[in-house]
Each structure stands twice: as structure tokens, then as C-alpha cells.
Amino acid sequence: MSQIKFQQLINDFSPASLSDIIKSHDFFRVKQNSLPTIKDEKFTDFSQLGDFDLEDNTNIVVICARSLAHLNERASRKTQYDISKKILKIFQKSRAGVFIYYDSKGDFRVSLIYADYLGTKVNYSTFRRFTYFVSKPQTNTTTINATG
């Protein structure tokens, strides 16, 4: 994703604008499925935007959900991580997911969460890693640089 498109997303976030940006990539398969079976008291409107495969055939699902409370740099990060792990268990063919949680102000958090399978045991990436909080008033330099 270009830095210009990402800056536009920061300025006017919506699931539709995010979907427009990511579906412009040839490797991305658009799904746009509502996920009504996923319930949480802090989040709503869970939907699958699509998925894509890495060169090693690892499938990555892209999920979006709306936070009922305002997000900030620390708020609900662990809760979002736990919900994301549950979603990965539902999408059994996906070993990883890009999860986007957003609020009514347009702030959002993007997280990459992946599973490592060690025999019958599953280890998930840590919730502090590969997570970016984005807010209009902030410079978002690290997140913007990570997209370019």
C-alpha cells in the first residue's frame, strides 16, 4: 500500500475505504462476509474483507470490527488479541490474520497475528508485536513507514 493511500485511510477511515485499498492488489481475494457468529460486548460488526496467500501458501485472513468504545494506544489491545485468536481458530485454513479494529472517531488498530504449530501445540505471536495504533491527531510515522 502506498504511503499516500495509507494517509488517505488515516484521514477518512471506514471499512469500505480500507476494502477499496486492499482489493486493488491482485493477490487479494475479496470476500466481504459478515461474521454474525462472533459476539463480544466491546466490539461489533465483525466482517471478513478477504484473504490472500503468501509464497509459501500460508493463508492470511483479513478481518475488520468496530469498537463500541473509543480506542487509544493501550485500550483493549489484549482483548482484541484474544478475540483475534478465537477468529483464527474458526478460520482453520488461515495460519495468520490481519485484524483491524476501529472506532467512531476513525482511529484504528491494525494487528498481524499468526500461529506457529508445534505438533499438537499452537503458539500465537505476542499481542504487543506487529500491532499499530493509528489516530488522526498523531503523526503515525512508524505505521506509515511500515506500509511503504
Task: Give an overview in words.
The chain is an alpha+beta fold and 148 residues long. It has one domain. It has four helices and seven strands; from the N terminus they run ααβββαββββα. It has helices spanning 3-11, 15-22, 77-90, 141-147, and strands at residues 29-34, 43-53, 59-67, 94-102, 108-118, 121-124, 131-134. Strands 1, 2, 3, 4, 5, 6 and 7 form a seven-stranded mixed β-sheet that branches. It starts with a helix and ends with a helix.
Mean pLDDT: 86
Structural class, by secondary structure, is alpha+beta
Determine the fraction of residues in helical runs and give it as a percent range.
25-40%
How much strand? 35-45%
Largest sheet: 7 strands, mixed
List the domain count as a whole number.
1
Poorly predicted spans: none
Rg on CA atoms, Å: 15 Å
**CA-based shape:** globular
Strands, count: 7
Instruction: Report, as a whole number of angstroms, the end-to-end distance.
Output: 6 Å
Order of helices and strands: HHEEEHEEEEH
What is the tally of helical segments? 4
Offer a few descriptive terms:
single chain; globular; seven-stranded mixed sheet; 148 residues; alpha+beta
